[in-house]
Amino acid sequence: MRMLEERIRKDGKIRGNDVLKVDSFLNHQVDPVLIDELAKEFYRLFKDENVDKILTIEASGIAVAVMAAKYFARPLVFAKKSRTVNISGDVYSSKAFSFTHKTENTVLVSKEYINKGERILLIDDFLANGCALRALRDIVIQAGAVPVGAGIVIEKAFQTGGEELRKEGLRIESLARIRSMSEENGIEFC
Amino acid sequence: MRMLEERIRKDGKIRGNDVLKVDSFLNHQVDPVLIDELAKEFYRLFKDENVDKILTIEASGIAVAVMAAKYFARPLVFAKKSRTVNISGDVYSSKAFSFTHKTENTVLVSKEYINKGERILLIDDFLANGCALRALRDIVIQAGAVPVGAGIVIEKAFQTGGEELRKEGLRIESLARIRSMSEENGIEFC
To answer: CA-CA distance, B56 to B77, in Å (whole number)?
Structure first.
């Protein structure tokens, strides 16, 4: 999506060869006009999938996911992250290691909010190693629901998460795919 | 706001005399159609305040705040919560005790995203003892910016946070104000 790629080039900050900071418009400060365009694009891409619900993970996936949910006119569910290990019986849970924060989180969704047979669209802001997306997909499968695909804002295509999950059959649509990046040479998109 | 009060009566779950669970439409599963109406109402209430930015706190404030930000056509900033004490020099920070989770969090906003003189509208899903809202207001004041008011989805008016902050001069507009609630007698709105 050209508009997003241009915004990343203009306002993204590269640190080393693998950290991209998009704090100024996506995950600390949020540009609602841009986010709304991204949400519309997710709707265009997945509108024929008979989506029943959208599932994202707190916190930075929520903004784009709720805007997308409005276009689909379907509920959004946001999974919660917890570092505590005591999980009650009324939630689905899956582990996800965060490379950003160097912590292992448990990802939780109440069993009330994903039902057997529902068609679930996953949405998240970033896809790199795929841990968060994998945890969301696992929760959908635990519930007996169907992961119809994943809408991702920025994919680091030089990491392996997207490739692995596509091989396992998940449809992934990333609005910007970064082939390579470095402080010296900037960003190359796929 | 009648539509919200009716939804709380219909889908809210009371536990004891002070816990109201609105997980099914506000802070785990989110109804984007309802949230959009709440966002429009915040715009109607604060549209003459020349709002430069909206500030909320992760995670459950983000959905309604980003929708409101779209109506104002202004950026949203969401404050981050951290349990770590090491704060770098490039953030504003304030402490907030969470009665829900029984933990003290540090609330953080990068200094890049709130500037001196900016008119900031605070938005959050709940107001009870006022700790989170107080932390957001403190951060705005640290930045030399102006807290023009706070838009709250649900205020527990039987707790003291709202009253105290109003006495200190903060304009607070709550879309539903609960005077009292109990498992036996249900909810009474103000």
So the answer is: 6
